[in-house]
Design a protein that fits this description.
heterotrimer, A mainly alpha (295), B mainly alpha (130), C alpha/beta (233), A: 295 residues, mainly alpha, 9 helices, C: 233 residues, alpha/beta, 6-stranded mixed sheet, 3-stranded antiparallel sheet, 35% helix, globular
Chain lengths: 295, 130, 233
């Protein structure tokens, strides 16, 4: 049943979001061509006449459009994800969703998973677009611009020689953090929308927005308290780091010290965010099952 | 064939009466297979359980018989049908006289009215299948 | 089929301090078409929502074919709410596929043939259909399921007389000895011929539960007339 829910939720999101992603790609391609053409034009020998300055303006515009398209599409992706959640669960469609022979848990999982997949897709598309622009649009001589990539390649090489394969660990930790943080953000908004729907019957969305800020506030209060409680041990770690003689160490040793020092904080913070995320999920489920009354 | 029912008398009685009328007027001929309970219910726009009850009543007086696996049929026994016809006729006559008496007619006056009506428009004898 | 389709024991639901349903005890058997009748705000919709699992009881319990509201009970219940609940952006066909995907008891051929006889275009987007047509589509989807309990909330309100006949005809055609149909409505006179039994409910409490023909026999009244007497303003 979870698979079916995911299939349908994904389809209903893709229906609207796929065109936006294609739009970004289209805008990127146009901007890339424009930028590349603009670079190739040799303005020095010719008087700046009307046609050439027009071309410059247009290419500038195209690049601007690309940036705007990327920003707008990102906002749209987020907006549509939460709008679909609201419509499917908190408004009239809820009569359909909550009478399906599926558990509330699965309904929530499907909403979370499809939101994360689309966030991933959107990020991937933006990444690809930026690469296309850099690769094909910024080449001064020739068609492609590999300079940036060469620089990145050299940096990676340096890291590899200094630290070796163990660099995979911080990378994995960063990925893990991004995933859990994304889930946390998504579930926080979902929870806010649910609370809005439970508490207010006429102004569900407004209430939802209000509760989002309320949750944010509560969480930052919580974080401040925790930071205060651990300020003692943080000071300790900092002093420890200070006591090390950095000049005598090589890159690998420096890396090991730093990485090791960060670990407890990383895992603790990650655990905290994970606990919050799970809390959001469980509270959402409880409210949907027991407190939501669709009018 | 939307049948008419009044909501203040038991529907199953009215259904049974309508079926009997159907048999007496020849809409349902002797030995003819009747629609199933479900079909009847849809045609008459009433509850199937009501139809079932009506048919059971008719079965108990012998106007209808069930042949297992094939369904319900109008009886082949002419005598049963004639008994029903007589009963219905008597009922109608009594009703009619009661209504006429309420208007102030005596029995004799009523009979004279009927005779006059017969002379005017034939004997009003119209078979449903004519 | 000895177990009741819908059973409520001491069922109570509060909204804040307001008791929408209070200590309701009732047991509905299979093979019957039953009317849920009562004035506005009497608790009809609350009862239906509790049976669907859309609300949780404050006290007492509700069981569908022995199951508490959950995944198993939802697979046995086919609910037609008063409002349109199908996504605006789906086509009629997509809605059918959706039901087919989630409900094992969905009869695809039946749904398609019903929509054809109603002349609803299969590829029409729900948003483009008139309110009456949308309601027909919903009815078709709900009645194309071979469910054990059908909960119809005002199925013929706001619909023209011809459509009314069609809807009641569909309910009758769909009749099964293994299922129960509970119709909540104000339009008693139009519907009472079709009812085996009726429930009167007021202020969240059960007032009567009886057979329609028994009432007619005993009191010589229609259910509609009886309702007006019992619930005289």
């Amino acid at each position: 049943m979870l698979g079916k829910l995911i299939k349908h939720d994904f389809r209903s999101l893709s229906r609207v979001l796929l065109p936006t992603q294609l739009a970004i790609l289209g805008a990127t391609i146009l901007a890339t061509i424009g930028f590349a053409v603009n670079l190739k034009m040799d303005y020095s020998h010719v008087q700046i006449n009307g046609v050439l300055s027009l071309i410059r303006v247009i290419t500038g515009l195209l690049s601007g459009i690309m940036v705007v398209a990327i920003i707008a599409a990102s906002i749209l992706v987020a907006f549509i994800i939460f709008q679909r959640f609201y419509k499917n669960l908190i408004s009239d469609e809820g009569y359909l969703t909550f009478t399906l022979p599926v558990t509330t848990t699965n309904i929530l999982w499907s909403k979370l998973i499809t939101a994360m997949i689309w966030t991933l897709i959107s990020s991937a598309v933006i990444f690809v677009c930026l690469n296309i622009f850099v690769l094909f649009g910024t080449g001064n001589d020739g068609f492609v611009n590999l300079d940036a990539y060469r620089a990145i390649g050299e940096a990676l090489n340096a890291v590899n020689t200094a630290i070796g394969a163990r660099v995979i660990w911080p990378i994995l930790e960063i990925i893990l953090f991004i995933l859990i943080a994304a889930a946390n953000n998504i579930l926080q908004i979902y929870l806010a929308l649910i609370i809005g729907g439970v508490v207010s019957h006429k102004h569900k969305v407004l209430a939802g927005i209000g509760f989002y800020f309320a949750i944010n506030f509560a969480v930052s209060m919580l974080m401040s308290i925790i930071q205060f409680l651990f300020s003692g041990s943080m000071l300790n770690s900092f002093n420890n780091l200070n006591g090390i003689q950095w000049e005598n160490k090589n890159a690998l040793e420096i890396y090991n010290h730093l990485f090791g020092a960060i670990q407890p904080y990383y895992w603790f913070y990650l655990g905290l965010i994970l606990a919050l995320t799970v809390g959001y999920f469980l509270l959402s489920r409880y409210l949907l099952k027991n407190k939501l009354n669709l009018e | 064939m939307a049948w008419q029912f009044s909501n203040d008398k038991p529907i199953y009685v009215q259904v049974s009466d309508q079926i009997v009328s159907g048999i007496l007027t020849g809409t349902f001929k002797m030995g003819e297979k009747l629609p199933s309970v479900r079909e009847f219910a849809v045609i008459a726009a009433v509850n199937p359980n009501t139809v079932q009850k009506a048919l059971s009543e008719l079965e108990s007086v012998g106007l209808i018989e069930t042949q297992r696996n094939t369904g319900k049929y109008v009886t082949q026994e002419g005598s049963i049908i004639e008994t029903a016809r007589t009963k219905r006729g008597e009922l109608l006559a009594t009703e009619f006289l009661k209504n006429m008496a309420a208007l102030g007619y005596t029995g004799q006056q009523t009979i004279r009215l009927i005779e006059a009506a017969c002379k005017e428009g034939g004997d009003g004898h119209e078979r449903a299948d004519a | 089929m000895s177990e009741p389709t819908l059973e409520c024991r001491g069922l109570t639901k509060y909204f804040g301090t307001n008791p929408a349903l209070h200590n309701l005890n009732i047991s509905l058997p299979a093979g019957k078409i039953i009317g849920l009748l009562g004035p506005n705000g009497s608790g009809k919709t609350t009862l239906i929502k509790l049976a669907c699992g859309l609300l949780t009881p404050s006290e007492g319990e509700v069981r569908v074919c022995g199951y508490a509201p959950g995944v198993e009970s939802k697979a046995l219940v086919s609910y037609l709410p008063e409002r349109t609940y199908l996504p605006d952006w789906m086509t009629v066909m997509e809605c059918i596929r959706y039901f087919q995907d989630f409900y094992a008891d969905f009869d695809y051929e039946r749904a398609v043939s019903m929509l054809q006889s109603l002349q609803v275009p299969a590829n029409a987007v729900m948003k483009t259909l008139s309110k009456g047509t949308k309601e027909k589509v919903q009815l078709v989807l709900v009645m194309s399921r071979r469910a054990r309990l059908y909960l119809l909330d005002e199925p013929i309100g706001g619909v023209d007389p011809a459509a009314r006949d069609y809807i009641l005809g569909t309910i009758l055609k769909n009749y099964s000895e293994e299922s129960t149909v509970l119709i909540s409505t104000h339009l008693i006179a139009d519907v009472e011929k079709v009812l085996d039994e009726f429930i009167f409910i007021q202020n969240g409490q059960l007032v009567s539960y009886a057979s329609t023909d028994s009432l007619r026999e005993d009191l010589g009244k229609s259910i509609d007339q009886y309702f007006r007497e019992v619930f005289r303003c």
